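Let's practice the habit of predicting before peeking. Look at the sequence and jot down your guess about where helices and strands might fall. Then scroll down.
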Amino acid sequence: MKQPYQTYTATDRDVWRMLYEGQMKQLPAIASVAYLEGIEKVGFVADHIPDFATETNPRLRALTGWEVKVVPGLIPQKEFFELLSHRQFPASTWLRKSNQLDYLEEPDMFHDTFGHVPLLTNQAFCDFMGDLSQVALQWLHVPEAIAQIGRLYWYTVEFGLIQEEGHLKIYGGGILSSAGESEYCLRDAIPKISFDVRTLLNAPYHIDRYQDHYFIINSYEQLYRSTPDIEEILSETYLVAR
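Done guessing? Here is the structure:
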């Protein structure tokens, strides 16, 4: 599939601009430095929908070897992890309607692109996703193991927090693309838990509302170094099934 760039309407461009400007009013103070630097590196701006083929992918390939791969929407787990293993991040190309700015059930282009692509400029984060996908592909035949990997992915890539220079910052794409959750997740009253592989593999999550708690990493290198532990725990748990 290709991004149908010429079919974006004035309304689509307005939606991108409103969402972008809304998030960039608050993210500079609360988002991970790597994410904010990534926005500049990939050239995202408010008044221009990113063109994957001619703009985003050439920049990503030069920085980390990754690229955006157009998909129709949510895709099967096997296809999802295979794309990640080939350093391709799946992204849809459709944008939500103007009456859906605050909430959307299925991820759209703004979530996939604005939320996730800037961190594809960070090599340690990319290496973590690549290694995690390799682990997932080994366990596709064990639904329980894939469910556990999904929990860890959810609380890191989608809804993760990071400690940077004594301050709690956001790096999860699901938060970064959500105005409400960007504010909510950093409230003192919301539990924050230090990153622990075994805990994350067994932590329930919500797909239809804000999370009850969030997990904090100390660095992207910590994520990258965690994949052997993930594989070891899954092997201990499902050795017979494997």
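How did you do? The beta strands are 67-70, 88-91, 161-164, 167-170, 192-194, 214-217.
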